[in-house]
Automatic annotation (TrEMBL):
It comes from Gordonia phosphorivorans. Residues 276-395, 728-844 form the ABC3 transporter permease C-terminal domain. Keywords: Cell membrane, Membrane, Transmembrane, Transmembrane helix. The lineage of its organism: Bacteria, Bacillati, Actinomycetota, Actinomycetes, Mycobacteriales. It is a multi-pass membrane protein. The keyword Transmembrane applies. This is ABC transporter permease.
Amino acid sequence: MRKVSLRSLAAHKVRLILTVFSVVLGTSFVAAAVIFTSTVQSSFNAIFDNVARGVATQVTPADPNSPGVPLALADQLRADREKLGIDKLQVDFSGTATIAKADGSGLQTGGAPSIGSTYIPPDEAVDTAGFKLVEGRAPTAPGEVVLNTTAAEKADLKVGSKTVVALGAGVTPPIEVTVVGLIDMPAATGGMVNVQFERAQAEKLFSDGKYVGSIDMSAVSGVSDTELRDRVNAVVNGARTGDDALFDVRTGEQVREDQKASVATFLNIFRYILLAFAAIGLVVGTFIIYNTFSMIVAQRNRELALLRAIGASRKDVSRSVLLEALIVGLIGGVVGLALGVGIAAAMQGFTSSTGLPSDGLKVGWAAVLSAIFVGVVVTLLSAWFPARRASRIPPVEAMRMSAAEPGAGSLRKRTITGAVLGLVGIAMLVGGVLITGAGALALIGGAALLIIVAVVLGAPALSQPVVGAIGRVLQVPFGTVGKLARTNAVRNPRRSAATAFALTIGLVLVVIIGTLGASFKSAIDEGVDKQLRADFVISGSNNGPMSAAVGPAVEKVSDAQTVVAFDMAFVKLDDSDAVVTTPVGGPLSDVMQIDMIDGVEQVGGDSILISDQVRKTRGWELGEQVMFASTTGTDVPVTVTGVYEDNPALGEWIVGNSAFDKLSPSQAQRMTFVVLIKAKAGVSESALREQLETAVKPFLTAQVQDKQEFKNSFAAVIDQMMATLYALLGLALVIAVLGIINTLALSVVERRQEIGMLRAIGMSRAQLRRTIYLESTYIAIFGALLGVIVGLAIGLPLVYALRHWGLEALTVPWPLIVGTLVGAAVIGVIAALWPAFTAARTKPLEAITE
């Protein structure tokens, strides 16, 4: 039987290639996901290996939202350096900063850090791998800076260039600077910008004279890093330990490991997302593999029956098929691994071009084993069911059959099972719609799983009437050719359903994501139209807050009637981190619609307005006093004076200006995240826009938008996220298309004698090709219809369940749905091109006598 299996594989090379190809499709993305995330993690690890080199001990605030480490503490450590064993000690004054490019616009980082910091000469630096001055000189006076080389290249700046730097927080106005040197920084990846000032100016710009971000120390000879850490910890924290400690005291090695761990957390989430989409591709690939082996076993009915007739047992037949599947799985896994390496390399090339770190492709044992394991296991499971089914057919009956397909009884049982699961899933969907909260999402998630399984089981029974109906409509212009294509498409419902389902599962996810995206955009549009009365909005263009000086600058615009800036600061509430905002400027009601439920609309000096959701969850009522704490530990009581309807633009609460000043006394800690402007009566929008753009030009990161542009900016973020998801889902759709090609190609092999007969009685090559095009189109449209219906059945209840979190708009993405159905027809034709061409080359007499 082993010889029979091996010779069968060798004798049918085209069939072997198509079968291996189906396995490759199902395994390559799994390998690519593992390789790519391992590569990115290795690249980040290589960067962090250079972080804090030479640092024996580092002191940072235990609370990341605190003002920093007191400078007095640095002075104390410096005074005790000999007793503690400190060699060098440096403090780093730093903060967010944006530098202007040569054309005057702000250098955007796409979310990467853009910071200003202190230039520390190499002979004084504790961190021995921080940077290297490669051109020019060090800054020695106010207004002189050095810039990392990658940022200088993007900004088109060089040594001697004059530009401006805007500080991202605080009220310090933008300052003019001259680039006097360029530095090479190992950690300057992903678009990072580092502008370094001479020490005195850095301290003035990034400190209130009392705090610093961190203190780095090196140890004298004979004192280990851990010894210095313990000694310093005893000084800065005293008897405080654990959560009570005011400062984190770590060795340089601990700093590096903590940074690796923080990135590892992000990469694990990223890996899970990639593997989730890989799983989707694998599910689609599994159906293709199963479909392929069902066809292969069906084509070998007579061969397997003959083996049974000459003495082979059922187990022998099953084992021979499984042996072939094992070989195919191994070959497919290896080839899938190779293709996965190529996909990972392409992904790495793309991310490297966007600035992410790259340290060479890392193909570890995890990727190798995952590809081969998935290839072998999925292939064996996919082959076992058709092999078991074929082995149960009596030899004499199998010799008369053209396919080892299950009878009506088998199809009836799976259809009934699918119907029951589908009804349970629908009942769970209804339950998810009727209740609110996380329970609703859990019910809908479970319902989605049951409905998809129900579709898997019930699709063969659905395929005959639905594909038949599609065929009757589309066959009209094609006459007999169209009718023959319809007959072929409905002849084998199990195969047609399995082929279509590969497309169905991809489109289910596309429609769900499309429904969510369209509903989110509609909700934003409705919210902005209803709640925003301002004519213009100024917000940060660098994915971050703006300087608190933007608001005062805009208030000087003559044609602006009302200007309201929303400042924000980090605080503590019940020992947890929180954010407070305060409106600064004119009447809030001029620029925003506020629907009050209780109390007054005006927010007084030491008062707070809260949303209805906060009142329900926290139990706060009118007149109640709430205690916030500043990052320096100062308690600030505020009184609830009003409750407004939930408003995403206002958030959970807004506090009065006096309370905000107490909670954020340091100007350097303040940030503005949006400024709303109402024009004076009779002033044209174009005139006011010009004045506003002139006012905010020095701040570099501030952008002026009208109401429609403001809505479009949110829509662009959603579209970008959806495009990323669609790109990942595109793999499942590509696999589905290739699966249709694979199935049709095997179908052509299976029907070779039939095709020869059709050619012999007068069918032309063009007619034969057209028949296969139409057959593929019918199946593809069936899969798309099924995907759209199931996607809407899950997506609409999901959006409705999210109303608890403020998603009130329920929008069906009709353009996406119509485009999907049209695209399915095109996919059907494209997928049939090669199989149709192969079929048309069939020689009639050879095929008939074969």
